[in-house]
Amino acid sequence: MHIKDWITLILLAAVWGSAFMFIKIAAPDLGPVMLVTVRLYLAGLLFLPFLLQKKYIKLFKSHFNSIFILAIMNNALPFTMFAYASLDANSNMLAILNGTTALMTTVLAYFWLKNRVSFLQATGLLLGFLGILVLMNPANASTTFVSSIACLVGAFCYSFCGCYIQRYASNLNAFVMIGWSMFFGALLITPFAFFNIPSSFPKTETILSLLWLGIISTGVAYLGYVRLIERIGAVRTSTVTYLIPAFGILWGSIFLDEQITLIISIGFILILLGIYFSNSSAKEN
Fold first, then answer.
1. Are 50 and 56 in contact (CB under 8 A)?
2. pLDDT tens-place string over residues 91-128
3. ∠ CA(173), CA(179), CA(185), 5° rounding?
4. Rounded to whole angstroms, what are the CA distances from 259 to 92, 96, 141?
């Protein structure tokens, strides 16, 4: 890869890793549902001027089924799960458990896409599963059982989308699918937002966090993500998975003064090793 691609990859991981910190800041004040709704509208509106270009409009109808599925499974549902989880979990826990997406994708691809799983990949899954058990240990004061489950549900949604795209939408335009799915994700969750309006005006730090989440972490970052896939391919771009939890832990420690305990360190290392091995491509595959 060229140096500018490495820089883009690292910046993407840093920005996505920061999302969990800003979710942690904004969710208690704004509420998870309202947070996700406004976040998706901001990101969707950023894509809209591009999506309304003639070359993309003509693709809308043929892409609609995939857009609708991604709106739910890649945006509305997982964003909401992580936002709810943030109420009782540290941002570093959100980042680490989000990393289990890669592990779940390997399992889902085995059953759904009939991908073979090598011994090395199976070892990775076992290590990742042990890491999850360590983090969900009641002795870990950085999260609750319910919050951990919410994070895992969110991660499963992302893994489902990865397999779905590979199975049914690999030939569709990624820009069209991602852009419109954000806008429709916002529309789908809007009715719920009306029942979750904050009782008081949000704090300044909440508004700034929301703007970062919607415009930078979701809108601009996904524009960069699509561009990076076009330049270096989906496989190399997927290496961002390894970096996001590390940045999530780093930002939480620096800006939220979150403790990096022994339990978090062990769980993180096990999951990171699990991601590495489960994504290794053995010769037999």
1. yes
2. 999 999 999 998 898 899 999 999 888 899 899 999 99
3. 125
4. 9, 14, 10
Buried b (16+ CB within 10 A) or exposed e, 77-110: bbbbbbbbbbbebbbbbbbbbbbbbbbbbbbbbb
In 228-243, which positions are buried (b, 16+ CB within 10 angstroms) versus exposed (e)? bbeebeeeebeebbeb
Contacts of 171 (CB under 8 A, 6+ apart): none
Task: Give the Cβ contact number of residue 54 at 10 Å.
Answer: 6
Query: In this predicted structure, what is the pLDDT of residue 234?
Result: 65
Domain that holds residue 99: 3-278
Judge whether 250 lies within some domain.
yes
- The secondary structure of residue 195, as a DSSP letter, is T
Who wins on pLDDT, 241 or 48? Answer: 48
Domain total of the chain? 1
Q: How far is CA 51 from CA 25, 45, 67, 178, 179, in A?
A: 31, 10, 13, 10, 7
> Is residue 283 domain-resident?
no
Cα(88)–Cα(8) distance, integer angstroms = 32
Mean pLDDT of the chain: 92
Q: Is residue 273 part of a domain?
A: yes
What is the percent of the chain where pLDDT is above 90? 74
Distance of alpha carbon 71 from the chain centroid? 13
Q: Residue 285: is its pLDDT beyond 60?
A: no
Residue 20 parent element (H or E)? helix 3-30
284 within domain boundaries: no
